[in-house]
Design goal:
11 helices, three-stranded mixed beta sheet, 78% helix, 3 strands
Length: 346
């Protein structure tokens, strides 16, 4: 029986070794395949923008339109900054925050529009990996800062109308500087968080972005790694820098309107409302476009609609802000007239 069992035992050992070899070979093949895939993924050097690819015949028209909007945005906000600086009457907290808003709009639109304009002349519309991360960093910084700054401006109007006697104390130069600096730091901190999280993702092909700019949700779609942390960070940021300032602004204006309605004279009510009408208009446009851009249902997604939403939010809104403030504000209009007349006489 021992002689009969030896060959069977030997065959069992051979079969075991074969199975173990096949298993190890399978592991090796999978490891090599995974290594090659990761090597290909981590060598992403650029992204290709597919925005406006559906309308190749309108490239020239889009270029001219975006160039005009960009020039109006830069010129309008520079004029607002110059008017506030040269007119001592405008050296108040409201215009101090407005100057920050104008500077923000210049920075925000300059992060996207120049690249868009250059790409209109490029057959292959690309941006480097580092350039894409840099664009996201600055876009998130300026967008987050503007959300907080608009809430700060609403608080300024609330104090001016509801607590006018305490206004010089509650909105002193030091307080205004703290509030403006806090707005910038909030945007910067939020941007560092998101950009750092995106930089850790493993991206897989194709390296094509169905848009004309880099944005966080677009890169998350290209990720092969777990994006749950990024998505949680987006939800937190949406509540902190989107919903909270919006609710704060809404509550502030409910209290402001309630206080205005208690004013006896019609002239007094009109004067009080005129001091916050421009800011209220900007708030409605800003939060309306940002909600249309990011809170639309995914079922109704299309590339054209998505680009239209981004154009309204990233390009058109920064142009409208100086127009709204200059049209609805007598002090700003008078200063602009003097500034333009002095410039034309030189």
């Amino acid at each position: 029986m021992c002689h009969l069992a030896a060959p069977e035992l030997l065959q069992q050992k051979v079969d075991y070794l074969k199975a173990d070899f096949n298993q190890q070979n399978t592991y090796l093949v999978c490891a090599i395949k995974e290594f090659k895939e990761r090597e290909n993924q981590t060598t992403v050097m650029e992204f290709i923008f597919l925005g406006f690819s559906n309308h190749p015949d309108l490239q020239g028209l889009f270029f001219l339109l975006f160039l005009i909007i960009y020039m109006i945005t830069i010129l309008g906000n520079i004029l607002i900054l110059a008017s506030i600086r040269i007119n001592p009457v405008l050296h108040t907290p409201m215009y101090y925050f407005l100057s920050n808003l104008s500077f923000l709009d210049i920075c925000y639109t300059s992060t996207t529009v120049p690249i868009i304009l250059v790409n209109f002349f490029q057959e292959k519309k690309t941006i480097s990996y580092e350039g894409c991360l840099a664009q996201i960093f600055f876009l998130v910084t300026f967008a987050g800062c503007e959300c907080v700054l608009l809430a700060v401006m609403a608080y300024d109007r609330f104090v001016a109308i509801c607590h006018p006697l305490r206004y010089p104390v509650l909105m002193s130069k030091r307080v205004c500087a703290y509030l403006a600096t806090g707005s910038w730091l909030c945007g910067l901190g939020n941007s560092l968080t998101h950009t750092g999280l995106i930089a850790t993702l493993t991206l897989c092909g194709p390296n094509q972005i169905s848009h004309f700019l880099c944005d966080i949700p677009l890169l998350l779609k290209l990720s092969c790694s777990d994006t749950s942390v990024n998505e949680v960070a987006l939800y937190v940021a949406s509540a902190t820098f989107g919903l909270s300032p919006c609710l704060f602004t809404a509550v502030s204006y409910i209290l402001i309107i309630s206080a205005i309605l208690k004013i006896q004279s019609a002239q007094g009510r009109q004067k009080a409302f005129s001091t916050c009408a421009s800011h209220l208009t900007v708030v409605v446009i800003y939060y309306g476009t940002i909600n249309f851009n990011y809170d639309r249902p995914s079922s109704g997604y299309s590339l054209d609609v998505d680009m239209l939403a981004s154009v309204l939010f990233c390009i058109v809104t920064p142009m409208l802000n100086p127009i709204i403030y200059s049209l609805r504000n007598k002090e700003v209009k008078n200063t602009l007239r003097k500034l333009l007349s002095s410039g034309s006489s030189i």
